[in-house]
User: What shape does this take?
Amino acid sequence: MILRALLQIGVLLLLPPLLLGVVNRVKAIAAGRKGPPLLQLYFDLAKLLRKGAVYSRTTTWVFRAGPAVGLAAIATAGTMLPVAGQPAIVSFSGDFVLFAYLLALARFATALAALDTGSSFEGMGAAREVSFASMAEPTLFLVLVVMARATGSLSLSGMLGPALAPAWRAAAPALLLSAIALFVVALAENSRIPVDDPNTHLELTMIHEVMILDHSGPDLAFILYGASLKFFLFGALLVRLVADVGATGFWSAEGAFVLELLAFSVLVGVVESFMARLRLTRVPQMLVGASILSVFALVLLLR
Amino acid sequence: MGAWTDMAFILVVVLDLFLLASSRLGAAIRAVALQGALLSLLALLLTSSGHDLGHMLAVAGGAFFIKAFLIPWLMFRAIREMAIRREMEPLVGYVPSLILGGLGVVLSFALSRGLPLPTNEMHPFLVPTALATVWTGLLLVVSRRKAVTQVLGFLVLENGVFIFGLLLTDFMPVMVEAGVLLDLLAAVFVMGIVMFQINREFASLDTDALSSLKD
Assistant: This one.
Protein backbone atom coordinates (compact mmCIF):
# COMPACT_ATOMS: atom_id res chain seq x y z
CA MET A 1 0.00 0.00 0.00
CA ILE A 2 2.72 2.43 1.03
CA LEU A 3 4.86 1.24 -1.85
CA ARG A 4 2.04 1.97 -4.27
CA ALA A 5 1.47 5.44 -2.85
CA LEU A 6 5.18 6.13 -3.14
CA LEU A 7 5.18 4.92 -6.72
CA GLN A 8 2.28 7.20 -7.52
CA ILE A 9 4.04 10.23 -6.05
CA GLY A 10 7.19 9.10 -7.83
CA VAL A 11 5.41 9.12 -11.20
CA LEU A 12 4.01 12.56 -10.46
CA LEU A 13 7.37 14.00 -9.47
CA LEU A 14 9.82 12.22 -11.76
CA LEU A 15 8.03 11.71 -15.06
CA PRO A 16 7.29 15.32 -16.17
CA PRO A 17 10.72 16.32 -17.54
CA LEU A 18 10.76 13.19 -19.67
CA LEU A 19 7.51 14.27 -21.36
CA LEU A 20 9.07 17.52 -22.54
CA GLY A 21 12.07 15.49 -23.73
CA VAL A 22 9.69 13.38 -25.82
CA VAL A 23 8.07 16.49 -27.31
CA ASN A 24 11.48 17.86 -28.28
CA ARG A 25 12.57 14.53 -29.73
CA VAL A 26 9.45 14.32 -31.90
CA LYS A 27 10.03 17.85 -33.14
CA ALA A 28 13.65 17.05 -33.89
CA ILE A 29 12.74 13.92 -35.86
CA ALA A 30 10.09 15.79 -37.85
CA ALA A 31 12.67 18.44 -38.71
CA GLY A 32 15.27 15.82 -39.69
CA ARG A 33 17.54 16.58 -36.76
CA LYS A 34 18.93 14.26 -34.15
CA GLY A 35 17.77 16.38 -31.24
CA PRO A 36 18.85 16.60 -27.61
CA PRO A 37 18.81 13.46 -25.45
CA LEU A 38 15.45 12.48 -24.02
CA LEU A 39 16.71 13.17 -20.51
CA GLN A 40 18.12 16.63 -21.34
CA LEU A 41 15.79 18.46 -18.97
CA TYR A 42 16.95 16.30 -16.03
CA PHE A 43 20.57 17.20 -16.83
CA ASP A 44 19.64 20.87 -17.10
CA LEU A 45 17.83 20.77 -13.76
CA ALA A 46 20.76 19.04 -12.06
CA LYS A 47 23.17 21.60 -13.50
CA LEU A 48 21.02 24.57 -12.50
CA LEU A 49 20.47 23.29 -8.98
CA ARG A 50 24.24 23.15 -8.40
CA LYS A 51 24.69 26.76 -9.43
CA GLY A 52 24.22 29.90 -7.39
CA ALA A 53 21.54 32.48 -8.12
CA VAL A 54 22.17 36.07 -9.14
CA TYR A 55 19.73 38.71 -7.97
CA SER A 56 19.45 42.21 -9.31
CA ARG A 57 19.66 44.98 -6.70
CA THR A 58 16.33 46.43 -7.82
CA THR A 59 14.39 43.27 -7.01
CA THR A 60 12.69 42.56 -3.69
CA TRP A 61 11.52 39.45 -1.88
CA VAL A 62 8.67 39.13 -4.41
CA PHE A 63 11.17 38.18 -7.07
CA ARG A 64 12.81 35.57 -4.82
CA ALA A 65 9.49 34.10 -3.74
CA GLY A 66 8.10 33.80 -7.28
CA PRO A 67 9.68 30.50 -8.41
CA ALA A 68 9.19 28.76 -5.04
CA VAL A 69 5.52 29.78 -4.76
CA GLY A 70 4.93 28.81 -8.38
CA LEU A 71 6.44 25.34 -8.02
CA ALA A 72 4.70 24.72 -4.68
CA ALA A 73 1.32 25.72 -6.09
CA ILE A 74 1.66 23.48 -9.14
CA ALA A 75 2.87 20.54 -7.05
CA THR A 76 -0.06 20.97 -4.66
CA ALA A 77 -2.42 21.01 -7.60
CA GLY A 78 -0.80 17.75 -8.69
CA THR A 79 -1.79 16.04 -5.46
CA MET A 80 -5.46 16.52 -6.37
CA LEU A 81 -5.24 14.80 -9.73
CA PRO A 82 -5.95 11.09 -9.74
CA VAL A 83 -3.03 9.30 -11.35
CA ALA A 84 -3.74 6.08 -13.25
CA GLY A 85 -7.23 5.47 -11.97
CA GLN A 86 -6.19 5.55 -8.34
CA PRO A 87 -7.92 8.16 -6.20
CA ALA A 88 -5.90 11.31 -5.75
CA ILE A 89 -3.76 11.93 -2.68
CA VAL A 90 -6.00 14.84 -1.66
CA SER A 91 -9.64 14.73 -2.67
CA PHE A 92 -12.71 16.60 -1.48
CA SER A 93 -15.91 17.87 -2.99
CA GLY A 94 -15.20 20.90 -5.15
CA ASP A 95 -11.44 20.38 -5.34
CA PHE A 96 -11.47 21.19 -9.06
CA VAL A 97 -11.91 24.88 -8.20
CA LEU A 98 -8.83 24.77 -5.99
CA PHE A 99 -6.98 22.86 -8.72
CA ALA A 100 -7.70 25.58 -11.30
CA TYR A 101 -6.85 28.40 -8.93
CA LEU A 102 -3.61 26.82 -7.71
CA LEU A 103 -2.49 26.82 -11.34
CA ALA A 104 -3.61 30.46 -11.51
CA LEU A 105 -1.67 31.22 -8.32
CA ALA A 106 1.50 29.81 -9.88
CA ARG A 107 0.98 32.08 -12.89
CA PHE A 108 0.33 35.04 -10.60
CA ALA A 109 3.57 34.43 -8.68
CA THR A 110 5.59 34.18 -11.90
CA ALA A 111 3.99 37.32 -13.32
CA LEU A 112 4.60 39.28 -10.11
CA ALA A 113 8.25 38.20 -10.07
CA ALA A 114 8.55 39.35 -13.68
CA LEU A 115 7.00 42.72 -12.86
CA ASP A 116 9.26 43.07 -9.83
CA THR A 117 12.39 43.24 -12.00
CA GLY A 118 11.15 46.56 -13.35
CA SER A 119 12.08 45.57 -16.89
CA SER A 120 9.54 46.78 -19.44
CA PHE A 121 10.29 43.70 -21.53
CA GLU A 122 9.29 41.33 -18.75
CA GLY A 123 6.26 43.48 -18.00
CA MET A 124 5.14 42.98 -21.59
CA GLY A 125 5.53 39.21 -21.23
CA ALA A 126 3.56 39.23 -17.99
CA ALA A 127 0.78 41.25 -19.63
CA ARG A 128 0.57 38.78 -22.51
CA GLU A 129 0.65 35.72 -20.29
CA VAL A 130 -2.07 37.04 -18.00
CA SER A 131 -4.36 38.25 -20.78
CA PHE A 132 -4.21 34.93 -22.65
CA ALA A 133 -4.69 33.03 -19.41
CA SER A 134 -7.81 35.06 -18.65
CA MET A 135 -9.25 33.83 -21.93
CA ALA A 136 -8.21 30.22 -21.34
CA GLU A 137 -9.62 30.07 -17.82
CA PRO A 138 -13.36 30.08 -18.75
CA THR A 139 -12.73 27.13 -21.07
CA LEU A 140 -10.96 25.15 -18.36
CA PHE A 141 -13.83 25.77 -15.96
CA LEU A 142 -16.50 24.93 -18.52
CA VAL A 143 -14.73 21.67 -19.34
CA LEU A 144 -14.52 20.81 -15.65
CA VAL A 145 -18.22 21.66 -15.21
CA VAL A 146 -19.12 19.44 -18.17
CA MET A 147 -17.17 16.59 -16.56
CA ALA A 148 -18.78 17.25 -13.19
CA ARG A 149 -22.24 17.26 -14.72
CA ALA A 150 -21.59 14.12 -16.82
CA THR A 151 -20.24 12.09 -13.94
CA GLY A 152 -22.31 13.65 -11.14
CA SER A 153 -19.25 14.22 -9.00
CA LEU A 154 -17.66 17.41 -7.74
CA SER A 155 -14.14 16.18 -7.08
CA LEU A 156 -11.45 15.46 -9.64
CA SER A 157 -11.06 11.91 -8.33
CA GLY A 158 -14.76 11.28 -8.92
CA MET A 159 -14.83 12.98 -12.32
CA LEU A 160 -11.95 10.93 -13.63
CA GLY A 161 -12.80 7.78 -11.74
CA PRO A 162 -15.07 4.83 -12.52
CA ALA A 163 -18.06 7.11 -13.29
CA LEU A 164 -16.38 8.27 -16.48
CA ALA A 165 -17.00 5.17 -18.61
CA PRO A 166 -20.84 5.27 -18.26
CA ALA A 167 -20.69 9.03 -18.86
CA TRP A 168 -18.96 8.39 -22.20
CA ARG A 169 -21.73 6.01 -23.21
CA ALA A 170 -24.42 8.53 -22.28
CA ALA A 171 -22.89 11.77 -23.52
CA ALA A 172 -20.05 11.00 -25.93
CA PRO A 173 -20.45 14.13 -28.14
CA ALA A 174 -20.32 16.55 -25.20
CA LEU A 175 -17.28 14.87 -23.67
CA LEU A 176 -15.49 14.71 -27.02
CA LEU A 177 -16.06 18.43 -27.64
CA SER A 178 -14.82 19.29 -24.17
CA ALA A 179 -11.74 17.10 -24.69
CA ILE A 180 -10.90 19.07 -27.85
CA ALA A 181 -11.39 22.34 -25.95
CA LEU A 182 -9.19 21.01 -23.15
CA PHE A 183 -6.43 20.16 -25.62
CA VAL A 184 -6.46 23.76 -26.92
CA VAL A 185 -6.32 25.05 -23.35
CA ALA A 186 -3.45 22.67 -22.57
CA LEU A 187 -1.48 24.03 -25.54
CA ALA A 188 -2.19 27.63 -24.50
CA GLU A 189 -1.50 27.16 -20.78
CA ASN A 190 1.78 25.40 -21.41
CA SER A 191 2.95 27.98 -23.95
CA ARG A 192 3.19 25.42 -26.73
CA ILE A 193 3.38 26.28 -30.40
CA PRO A 194 0.14 27.64 -31.80
CA VAL A 195 0.19 30.17 -28.96
CA ASP A 196 3.82 30.60 -28.01
CA ASP A 197 7.07 29.13 -29.24
CA PRO A 198 9.03 27.67 -26.32
CA ASN A 199 12.27 27.67 -28.34
CA THR A 200 12.59 31.22 -29.54
CA HIS A 201 14.12 34.10 -27.74
CA LEU A 202 12.66 36.63 -30.12
CA GLU A 203 11.04 39.45 -28.26
CA LEU A 204 8.07 39.90 -30.56
CA THR A 205 6.78 36.39 -30.10
CA MET A 206 7.74 35.40 -26.59
CA ILE A 207 5.17 35.07 -23.84
CA HIS A 208 6.22 32.70 -21.12
CA GLU A 209 9.95 32.79 -21.78
CA VAL A 210 10.06 36.57 -21.36
CA MET A 211 9.00 36.42 -17.76
CA ILE A 212 11.82 34.17 -16.63
CA LEU A 213 14.78 35.92 -18.25
CA ASP A 214 16.08 37.31 -14.97
CA HIS A 215 15.92 34.07 -13.02
CA SER A 216 19.07 32.02 -12.66
CA GLY A 217 20.38 28.93 -10.94
CA PRO A 218 17.97 27.05 -8.65
CA ASP A 219 15.20 29.61 -9.32
CA LEU A 220 15.32 28.86 -13.03
CA ALA A 221 15.39 25.14 -12.24
CA PHE A 222 12.22 25.56 -10.15
CA ILE A 223 10.50 27.38 -13.00
CA LEU A 224 11.53 24.86 -15.65
CA TYR A 225 10.50 21.95 -13.46
CA GLY A 226 7.21 23.67 -12.59
CA ALA A 227 6.48 24.18 -16.29
CA SER A 228 7.08 20.49 -17.01
CA LEU A 229 4.90 19.53 -14.03
CA LYS A 230 2.10 21.71 -15.39
CA PHE A 231 2.43 20.03 -18.77
CA PHE A 232 2.16 16.68 -16.99
CA LEU A 233 -0.98 17.81 -15.11
CA PHE A 234 -2.81 18.90 -18.25
CA GLY A 235 -1.68 15.76 -20.05
CA ALA A 236 -2.89 13.58 -17.19
CA LEU A 237 -6.26 15.35 -17.12
CA LEU A 238 -6.69 14.90 -20.86
CA VAL A 239 -5.59 11.28 -21.15
CA ARG A 240 -7.79 10.27 -18.23
CA LEU A 241 -10.70 12.04 -19.89
CA VAL A 242 -10.35 10.52 -23.37
CA ALA A 243 -8.48 7.27 -22.88
CA ASP A 244 -9.72 5.43 -19.86
CA VAL A 245 -8.61 1.94 -20.80
CA GLY A 246 -10.43 0.42 -17.86
CA ALA A 247 -7.43 -1.59 -16.76
CA THR A 248 -8.22 -2.92 -13.31
CA GLY A 249 -4.88 -4.16 -12.05
CA PHE A 250 -2.66 -1.63 -10.36
CA TRP A 251 0.43 -2.23 -12.48
CA SER A 252 -1.44 -2.43 -15.78
CA ALA A 253 -3.35 0.79 -15.02
CA GLU A 254 -0.14 2.55 -14.07
CA GLY A 255 1.66 1.30 -17.17
CA ALA A 256 -1.23 2.27 -19.45
CA PHE A 257 -1.30 5.72 -17.88
CA VAL A 258 2.39 6.32 -18.51
CA LEU A 259 2.07 5.08 -22.10
CA GLU A 260 -0.92 7.36 -22.69
CA LEU A 261 1.01 10.32 -21.33
CA LEU A 262 3.89 9.54 -23.70
CA ALA A 263 1.36 9.37 -26.55
CA PHE A 264 0.02 12.77 -25.48
CA SER A 265 3.57 14.18 -25.63
CA VAL A 266 4.04 12.71 -29.10
CA LEU A 267 0.74 14.32 -30.18
CA VAL A 268 1.86 17.71 -28.87
CA GLY A 269 5.18 17.26 -30.65
CA VAL A 270 3.38 16.47 -33.91
CA VAL A 271 1.14 19.53 -33.53
CA GLU A 272 4.20 21.66 -32.89
CA SER A 273 6.03 20.25 -35.88
CA PHE A 274 3.25 20.80 -38.38
CA MET A 275 1.67 24.05 -37.22
CA ALA A 276 3.00 27.56 -37.41
CA ARG A 277 2.74 29.82 -34.44
CA LEU A 278 -0.38 31.95 -34.68
CA ARG A 279 -0.15 35.69 -34.88
CA LEU A 280 -0.73 37.21 -31.45
CA THR A 281 -3.99 38.79 -32.62
CA ARG A 282 -5.28 35.38 -33.71
CA VAL A 283 -4.63 33.70 -30.36
CA PRO A 284 -7.71 35.18 -28.61
CA GLN A 285 -9.77 33.95 -31.54
CA MET A 286 -8.59 30.38 -30.99
CA LEU A 287 -9.19 30.60 -27.25
CA VAL A 288 -12.68 32.07 -27.72
CA GLY A 289 -13.38 29.29 -30.22
CA ALA A 290 -12.35 26.73 -27.59
CA SER A 291 -14.63 28.34 -25.00
CA ILE A 292 -17.54 28.28 -27.46
CA LEU A 293 -16.91 24.58 -28.09
CA SER A 294 -17.05 23.95 -24.37
CA VAL A 295 -20.24 26.04 -24.01
CA PHE A 296 -21.72 23.94 -26.82
CA ALA A 297 -20.70 20.78 -24.95
CA LEU A 298 -22.40 22.05 -21.80
CA VAL A 299 -25.60 22.87 -23.71
CA LEU A 300 -25.61 19.41 -25.29
CA LEU A 301 -25.31 17.91 -21.85
CA LEU A 302 -27.99 20.06 -20.25
CA ARG A 303 -30.73 19.82 -22.84
CA MET B 1 -25.50 4.05 -35.67
CA GLY B 2 -27.17 6.58 -33.38
CA ALA B 3 -23.80 7.79 -32.13
CA TRP B 4 -22.58 8.35 -35.70
CA THR B 5 -25.66 10.44 -36.52
CA ASP B 6 -25.06 12.49 -33.35
CA MET B 7 -21.45 13.05 -34.38
CA ALA B 8 -22.45 14.09 -37.91
CA PHE B 9 -24.87 16.70 -36.58
CA ILE B 10 -22.28 18.01 -34.12
CA LEU B 11 -19.67 18.19 -36.85
CA VAL B 12 -22.07 20.27 -38.97
CA VAL B 13 -22.40 22.75 -36.08
CA VAL B 14 -18.64 22.79 -35.44
CA LEU B 15 -18.09 23.55 -39.14
CA ASP B 16 -20.52 26.47 -38.77
CA LEU B 17 -18.37 27.87 -35.97
CA PHE B 18 -15.19 27.23 -37.97
CA LEU B 19 -16.62 29.18 -40.91
CA LEU B 20 -17.34 32.16 -38.67
CA ALA B 21 -13.74 32.20 -37.46
CA SER B 22 -11.80 31.39 -40.61
CA SER B 23 -10.18 34.17 -42.58
CA ARG B 24 -8.82 32.03 -45.38
CA LEU B 25 -11.14 31.57 -48.32
CA GLY B 26 -9.74 28.20 -49.39
CA ALA B 27 -10.30 26.70 -45.95
CA ALA B 28 -13.80 28.20 -45.81
CA ILE B 29 -14.75 26.71 -49.20
CA ARG B 30 -13.42 23.32 -48.10
CA ALA B 31 -15.46 23.58 -44.90
CA VAL B 32 -18.63 24.32 -46.89
CA ALA B 33 -17.88 21.35 -49.16
CA LEU B 34 -17.37 19.09 -46.15
CA GLN B 35 -20.62 20.35 -44.69
CA GLY B 36 -22.39 19.49 -47.94
CA ALA B 37 -20.90 15.99 -47.89
CA LEU B 38 -22.03 15.56 -44.27
CA LEU B 39 -25.57 16.59 -45.25
CA SER B 40 -25.81 13.89 -47.88
CA LEU B 41 -24.42 11.41 -45.35
CA LEU B 42 -27.06 12.56 -42.87
CA ALA B 43 -29.79 12.03 -45.45
CA LEU B 44 -28.65 8.39 -45.68
CA LEU B 45 -28.16 7.94 -41.93
CA LEU B 46 -31.65 9.21 -41.18
CA THR B 47 -33.25 6.75 -43.59
CA SER B 48 -35.37 4.36 -41.64
CA SER B 49 -36.89 1.21 -43.08
CA GLY B 50 -40.15 2.98 -43.85
CA HIS B 51 -38.58 5.24 -46.46
CA ASP B 52 -38.25 4.64 -50.13
CA LEU B 53 -34.55 3.81 -50.42
CA GLY B 54 -34.23 4.85 -54.05
CA HIS B 55 -35.68 8.23 -53.24
CA MET B 56 -33.21 8.79 -50.41
CA LEU B 57 -30.30 7.66 -52.57
CA ALA B 58 -31.31 10.12 -55.28
CA VAL B 59 -31.55 12.98 -52.76
CA ALA B 60 -28.25 12.12 -51.07
CA GLY B 61 -26.42 11.54 -54.33
CA GLY B 62 -27.69 14.77 -55.87
CA ALA B 63 -26.82 16.75 -52.76
CA PHE B 64 -23.34 15.22 -52.62
CA PHE B 65 -22.62 15.92 -56.28
CA ILE B 66 -23.81 19.51 -56.21
CA LYS B 67 -22.96 20.64 -52.66
CA ALA B 68 -19.71 18.81 -52.07
CA PHE B 69 -18.27 18.76 -55.56
CA LEU B 70 -19.72 21.08 -58.19
CA ILE B 71 -20.23 24.27 -56.18
CA PRO B 72 -16.87 24.10 -54.34
CA TRP B 73 -15.18 23.55 -57.68
CA LEU B 74 -16.92 26.65 -59.07
CA MET B 75 -15.93 28.67 -56.02
CA PHE B 76 -12.30 27.58 -56.21
CA ARG B 77 -12.32 28.54 -59.87
CA ALA B 78 -13.75 31.93 -58.97
CA ILE B 79 -11.10 32.74 -56.37
CA ARG B 80 -8.37 31.51 -58.68
CA GLU B 81 -9.57 33.69 -61.55
CA MET B 82 -9.81 36.72 -59.31
CA ALA B 83 -6.61 35.98 -57.38
CA ILE B 84 -7.92 36.52 -53.88
CA ARG B 85 -6.98 34.45 -50.89
CA ARG B 86 -8.39 35.88 -47.71
CA GLU B 87 -11.22 37.93 -46.38
CA MET B 88 -9.95 41.31 -45.28
CA GLU B 89 -11.56 43.34 -42.51
CA PRO B 90 -15.04 41.86 -42.10
CA LEU B 91 -17.76 44.27 -40.93
CA VAL B 92 -18.09 42.31 -37.70
CA GLY B 93 -14.76 41.03 -36.38
CA TYR B 94 -13.95 37.33 -36.11
CA VAL B 95 -14.20 37.11 -32.34
CA PRO B 96 -17.57 38.96 -32.11
CA SER B 97 -18.99 36.88 -34.97
CA LEU B 98 -17.77 33.70 -33.23
CA ILE B 99 -19.49 34.82 -30.05
CA LEU B 100 -22.69 35.69 -31.94
CA GLY B 101 -22.54 32.32 -33.69
CA GLY B 102 -21.98 30.54 -30.39
CA LEU B 103 -24.95 32.41 -28.93
CA GLY B 104 -27.09 31.28 -31.86
CA VAL B 105 -25.99 27.67 -31.40
CA VAL B 106 -26.69 27.74 -27.68
CA LEU B 107 -30.11 29.36 -28.12
CA SER B 108 -31.17 27.00 -30.90
CA PHE B 109 -30.14 23.94 -28.87
CA ALA B 110 -31.72 25.27 -25.71
CA LEU B 111 -35.00 26.52 -27.18
CA SER B 112 -35.80 24.19 -30.08
CA ARG B 113 -37.46 21.75 -27.68
CA GLY B 114 -40.42 24.09 -27.38
CA LEU B 115 -41.09 24.38 -31.10
CA PRO B 116 -44.20 22.55 -32.32
CA LEU B 117 -43.48 20.36 -35.36
CA PRO B 118 -46.07 19.13 -37.84
CA THR B 119 -44.32 15.76 -38.21
CA ASN B 120 -42.55 13.55 -35.72
CA GLU B 121 -39.00 14.59 -34.93
CA MET B 122 -36.54 12.27 -36.64
CA HIS B 123 -33.59 13.09 -34.43
CA PRO B 124 -33.32 15.37 -31.38
CA PHE B 125 -30.43 17.32 -32.95
CA LEU B 126 -32.06 17.88 -36.35
CA VAL B 127 -34.06 21.05 -35.69
CA PRO B 128 -31.42 22.83 -33.55
CA THR B 129 -28.68 22.03 -36.09
CA ALA B 130 -30.85 23.39 -38.90
CA LEU B 131 -31.60 26.58 -36.94
CA ALA B 132 -27.95 27.08 -35.95
CA THR B 133 -26.79 26.58 -39.54
CA VAL B 134 -29.37 29.02 -40.91
CA TRP B 135 -28.30 31.56 -38.28
CA THR B 136 -24.62 31.10 -39.21
CA GLY B 137 -25.39 31.57 -42.89
CA LEU B 138 -27.34 34.73 -42.16
CA LEU B 139 -24.48 36.08 -40.03
CA LEU B 140 -21.95 35.36 -42.78
CA VAL B 141 -24.09 37.07 -45.42
CA VAL B 142 -24.58 40.27 -43.44
CA SER B 143 -21.22 40.55 -41.70
CA ARG B 144 -18.76 39.95 -44.52
CA ARG B 145 -17.61 42.47 -47.05
CA LYS B 146 -16.34 40.34 -49.88
CA ALA B 147 -18.74 38.85 -52.40
CA VAL B 148 -17.14 35.37 -52.20
CA THR B 149 -17.73 35.06 -48.47
CA GLN B 150 -21.27 36.30 -48.91
CA VAL B 151 -21.89 33.53 -51.44
CA LEU B 152 -20.45 31.06 -48.93
CA GLY B 153 -22.86 32.44 -46.33
CA PHE B 154 -25.74 31.89 -48.74
CA LEU B 155 -24.62 28.28 -49.26
CA VAL B 156 -24.49 27.67 -45.51
CA LEU B 157 -27.97 29.18 -45.20
CA GLU B 158 -29.19 26.77 -47.85
CA ASN B 159 -27.48 23.88 -46.04
CA GLY B 160 -29.53 24.76 -42.98
CA VAL B 161 -32.72 24.73 -45.03
CA PHE B 162 -31.70 21.35 -46.49
CA ILE B 163 -31.27 19.88 -42.99
CA PHE B 164 -34.74 21.11 -42.09
CA GLY B 165 -36.02 19.63 -45.35
CA LEU B 166 -34.78 16.20 -44.25
CA LEU B 167 -37.76 16.23 -41.86
CA LEU B 168 -40.09 16.32 -44.82
CA THR B 169 -38.45 13.79 -47.13
CA ASP B 170 -41.48 11.53 -46.72
CA PHE B 171 -43.76 14.08 -48.30
CA MET B 172 -41.53 15.79 -50.83
CA PRO B 173 -41.26 14.33 -54.31
CA VAL B 174 -37.77 13.93 -55.77
CA MET B 175 -38.52 16.47 -58.48
CA VAL B 176 -39.00 19.25 -55.91
CA GLU B 177 -35.68 18.51 -54.26
CA ALA B 178 -33.91 18.25 -57.57
CA GLY B 179 -35.43 21.62 -58.48
CA VAL B 180 -34.15 23.17 -55.24
CA LEU B 181 -30.64 21.86 -55.84
CA LEU B 182 -30.74 23.11 -59.42
CA ASP B 183 -31.90 26.53 -58.24
CA LEU B 184 -28.96 26.61 -55.88
CA LEU B 185 -26.54 25.80 -58.66
CA ALA B 186 -28.09 28.47 -60.87
CA ALA B 187 -27.84 30.99 -58.03
CA VAL B 188 -24.15 30.24 -57.56
CA PHE B 189 -23.62 30.62 -61.30
CA VAL B 190 -25.33 34.00 -61.29
CA MET B 191 -23.36 35.10 -58.27
CA GLY B 192 -20.15 33.99 -59.94
CA ILE B 193 -20.97 36.19 -62.92
CA VAL B 194 -21.89 39.09 -60.64
CA MET B 195 -18.66 38.63 -58.72
CA PHE B 196 -16.72 38.74 -61.95
CA GLN B 197 -18.49 41.96 -62.92
CA ILE B 198 -17.84 43.58 -59.54
CA ASN B 199 -14.21 42.58 -59.77
CA ARG B 200 -13.84 44.00 -63.28
CA GLU B 201 -15.60 47.24 -62.40
CA PHE B 202 -13.84 48.04 -59.11
CA ALA B 203 -10.72 45.85 -59.23
CA SER B 204 -11.83 44.33 -55.92
CA LEU B 205 -14.66 42.23 -54.59
CA ASP B 206 -15.65 44.69 -51.92
CA THR B 207 -19.43 44.97 -52.10
CA ASP B 208 -19.33 48.30 -50.25
CA ALA B 209 -18.10 49.80 -53.50
CA LEU B 210 -21.54 49.08 -54.95
CA SER B 211 -23.29 51.42 -52.55
CA SER B 212 -21.31 54.54 -53.34
CA LEU B 213 -22.92 56.69 -56.00
CA LYS B 214 -21.16 57.71 -59.16
CA ASP B 215 -22.43 59.52 -62.20
User: Anything to note?
Assistant: Residues 12 and 185 of chain B are 21 Å apart (CA to CA).
